[in-house]
Amino acid sequence: MRAGMVADDGADHGNGCFDEEWPTELDNELIDEKERTPFAVDAFRYGSIPGCSAYFLTHFHFDHYGGLTKGWSHGPIYCTRLTARLLTLCLSVNSSYIHPLDLNTEYIIEGVKVTLLEALHCPGAALIHFILPTGLCYLHTGDFRASKCMQSYYLLLNHKVNVLYLDTTYCNPKYKFPSKEDVLSYVVRVTKGFLKRQPKTLVVVGTYSIGKECVYLAISKALGKSVCSSFGISPTGWTYSESVGKQLDQIRPISKGNVTIYGVPYSEHSSFTELKEFVKFLKPDKIIPTVNVGNPATRDKMHSYFQEWLKG
Ligand SMILES: [Zn+2]
């Protein structure tokens, strides 16, 4: 990969701070000249990158597509079909630059085998799997929620990943939140209970951009209708608290007047445990974290987790 581009999703999801300095030097140290490709992933904020002839977009969240506008003319953009549609519909990117790719299909781009895999993040999000002519294999997770089902992805089972660019949003042992399924059934249960007591309730689910649809889809499916006091669900991994842990029933809603809000730990990113299981399964030679990398101490801590996981 080219230095400084691939690992950069431009976001420290944790504190909203982006350290402009780290990627170039860090990647230069990690990636040999012969291991580089003329590719950039989620690096649109840099505009035209010298030597880069193919730009990849993992998914349609601003911290990844930032810099991409309707005036884009720096080179072809590769992404999933759904993300491609969003680029046209929402950003009016010139379609002659957009190259939609199907999931689970191998494409040869600049001599490199490229396959997009389901990332279980937001609609259209993909992991990007690259095999260089030398056989060297990279996996860029973009943003993802690691799941056991990924351990049956053919490519991941049958091709050793040498370098893993990993979404480390929750790479801290304090983030041991429950599975999406458990949170969804909890939300449905709590909503049904609330509606029983106060049938005329407007249920509001907080979302940012695309991604948390599953929460309100689960509610409307369970109730059989789209559903006035107000009752709100705020789904994010950041509402996770250690005291609640995996005990969803200990979540205490916040009420003011006739508005009640439940913050639930519904995350589109991997929990610490899921990250660990994913890394232990892949056993890559090298891991490059892509989130929360601005702080050297945090970065060192993450690398110590990686070393521990890869030992076993
Ligand atoms: Zn995202």
Automatic annotation (TrEMBL):
Residues 221-295 form the DNA repair metallo-beta-lactamase domain. Pfam families: DRMBL. One of its GO terms (molecular function) is 5'-3' DNA exonuclease activity. GO terms for cellular component: nucleus. Keywords: DNA damage, DNA repair, Nucleus. InterPro entries: DRMBL, RibonucZ/Hydroxyglut_hydro. SUPFAM superfamilies: Metallo-hydrolase/oxidoreductase. One of its GO terms (biological process) is double-strand break repair via nonhomologous end joining. It is found in: Nucleus. Its main location: nucleus. The keyword Lipid metabolism does not apply. PANTHER family: DNA CROSS-LINK REPAIR PROTEIN PSO2/SNM1-RELATED, DNA CROSS-LINK REPAIR PROTEIN SNM1. Belongs to the DNA repair metallo-beta-lactamase (DRMBL) family. This is DNA repair metallo-beta-lactamase domain-containing protein. It comes from Hevea brasiliensis (Para rubber tree).
